[in-house]
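Each letter names a residue; the fold follows as tokens. Both lines appear below:
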Amino acid sequence: KETRELESLPKQIEGLEARRREHHERMAEPGYHRQGTERLSAAKTELDSIERELAAAHQRWEELELVASRN
């Protein structure tokens, strides 16, 4: 089970990094900050969520790598 999880984490992390990159690209567009506070707040909330998921995935990957190295 842990082996499959470890194998799946790189794709999960790549997907999260792609989503984060898309957000950053949108934020760099001219006029992005003229969207209104509700839309900006929602985008910030989503970006924060992606960052938390990404940190958790990296942490889990490290944990599983450590377990795998001990076996």
Summary: Helices lie at 2-28, 37-70.
